[in-house]
Amino acid sequence: MSASPIDRVAKATPPKLARKIRGLSDRTIAWIFVAPSIFLLLAVNIFPLIWTINLSFTNFKANRPGREIKYIGLRNYERILGDSDIWLTMQATAHFLFWTIALQVLIGFTLAWLINRKFKGNDLWTTIIVLPMMLSPAVVGNFWTFLYQPQIGLFNYVVSFFSGVDPSSFSMLGEVSLAPWAIVIVDTWMWTPFVMLICLAGLRSIPDYIYEAAAIDRASKWRQFWTITLPMVLPFLMLAVLFRGIENFKMFDLVVQLTGGGPGSTTELTSINLKREAFEKWRTGYASAYAIILFVTVFGLASIYVKALNKVKER
Amino acid sequence: MSGYSITDPTRRQKWIAGTLVVLYALITIMPLLWIFMTGFKSPVDAIAYPPKVTFQPTLEGYVNLFTTRTRVAPEQLAALPPPETWYEAIVRNRNMVIAGPSRYGQRFLNSVIIGFGSTFLSVFLGTLAAYAFSRFRVPLKDDLLFFILSTRMMPPIAVAIPIFLMFRTLGLSDTHLGMILLYTAVNISLAVWLLKGFIDEIPREYEEAALIDGYTRFQAFYKVVLPQAATGIASTAIFCLVFAWNEYAFAVLLTSGNAQTAPPFIPTIIGVGGQDWPAVAAGATIFLLPVMIFTILLRKHLLRGITFGAVRK
């Protein structure tokens, strides 16, 4: 497959040069193989990161490139940490993170536990459950606004069918009290299968003989669950939480399509807030400082979490 | 299967578990079925109350998706020669004529070009890097690997600020090349981690035997390792493709016309008085279907792909 271009190069290479290549040491080959990837990452990830750090100390505005750039020290950082709107954004993000992870862990684990009963056709149903996770969040999120429409939306209809509430009496995306839950519901719908798959791998990694031994010792099913199943799945579960945590901290596409941060700023998660500062208000310097703060937060929290995860794994 | 074991679930347990899982699957598939069905509804059926499950299917949504239309007066319409094609007939029924093709086809093509372009590049570069990390003693190996992974922790919007400026300076804004390079850079971390896992699983002895037989490192790499890693490379490619296919944040910020992909475009399909839901659903169906097929093909490697190879099963 991808061997063919190399093949052609090899055939086209004159013999003298070929002999030289033959003589390349493993060390040189290692660098030739790694260098392009590292170079690309440096150009598209690290160089921009350094640029962002630099911009974060300035009053630069990207929509006015001609203006003189002034270095203003830590002023942007001070302003962000003193801004009460940012704390509201953080609260919205925390609400979103907490509830999506809690629901996904609960439902995902339960589903995995049920699928692990190995009923007939469990492979087929697992594949169906997994589908939403792989789809484009923007396209699916956009369609969910249709399902959430008062009166004509399928979601409102189903809710009214089971609860008797008038389907036009509530608007999931238009009401301050409901919108934060509307985004939690869609994210849970989309990402529960992710947690489920990881839990399933955890459950399947537990060898049968442990349960057999426990049964011989007359440990109750309840006790087996708490002393065998849960501790052995815990590292897997924690890994799933790590992935979901990082992903949902970055959350942008799904929520932008669903609510755009509204109503008011009730669902304005950090990424959406950042986008407004950077690409609508064009406060580039300020937004850069904001981006750095977010990055340090995620990186710091993730490192602490990974340490904890490794401790659990060692036990 | 072996005989009876005390740890096997009873038949009743299996039945209850099966019922609950099937119930959940049916609920979770509902929004997707609804997208599919809405694509075949007429605009009136799409917004009917109560929501319609049975309806007269029509291709109007698909016709609207691929065309732009203008309204004409009834007397003008009557003066026109009879419609030549079935899709013209559908449009005429609404007192309109087709003005030209819509931009959906071009946006879809952009998704294909950028998706496949970046997938090819990231898998190509990723395979080389993964082989080196797997087989050679690269200095600072663990740091480099962690560095590659950590690039995934940045919120895309945070990276987008300098990339926006960089692309503007280099003239890469709203170009296919710019988007391909960007998606390659994002995907390379996934590609390296996944492929390293796959290549680690190929016994070194195969290559060593080849080296003893007089193969060079390059030959051993492409004649021995690559064929062995083919399944891994294919599934890595699909994961990269799905990411590039679904990506929205960079696409919406860095492209506007020429290189815009389908995800930012589909939500902007509007009809009379708001979104044209059958057309949106038709666009979404065409766009989501390939990924669903890939998911079914990939189901054995799914877990590995979504966890960066951390969980292998």
Explain what you see.
The complex is a heterodimer of chains A (315) and B (313). With 315 residues, chain A is mostly helical. Chain A has one domain: MetI-like fold (Orthogonal Bundle), CATH 1.10.3720.10. Chain A contains 14 helices and no strands. Chain A has helices at residues 3-12, 15-22, 26-55, 75-82, 84-115, 122-134, 137-147, 154-163, 179-204, 208-216, 221-249, 253-258, 270-279, 284-314. In chain A, helix 9 (179-204) crosses helix 11 (221-249) and helix 13 runs antiparallel to helix 14 (284-314). With 313 residues, chain B is mainly α. Chain B folds into two domains: 59-102, no CATH class; 105-306, Orthogonal Bundle (MetI-like fold). Helices cover 67% and strands 5% of the residues of chain B. Chain B is built from 16 helices and four strands. Chain B has helices at 11-38, 43-46, 60-66, 74-79, 86-93, 104-135, 141-150, 156-170, 176-200, 204-212, 217-228, 230-246, 249-254, 262-265, 277-298, 302-306; strands spanning 67-71, 96-101, 270-271, 274-275. In chain B, the strands form two sheets. A two-stranded antiparallel ribbon of chain B has the order 1-2. In chain B, strands 3-4 form a two-stranded antiparallel sheet. In chain B, strand 3 and strand 4 form a beta hairpin. The longest helix of chain B is centred in the middle third of the chain and has 32 residues, at 104-135. Chain B is globular and about 85 Å long. Chain B starts with 10 loop residues before the first helix and ends in a 7-residue tail after the last helix. In chain B, 45% of the residues are buried. The chains are: A mainly alpha (315), B mainly alpha (313). Chains A and B meet through helix 1, helix 3, helix 5, helix 6 and helix 7 of A and helix 1, helix 6, helix 7, helix 8 and helix 9 of B.
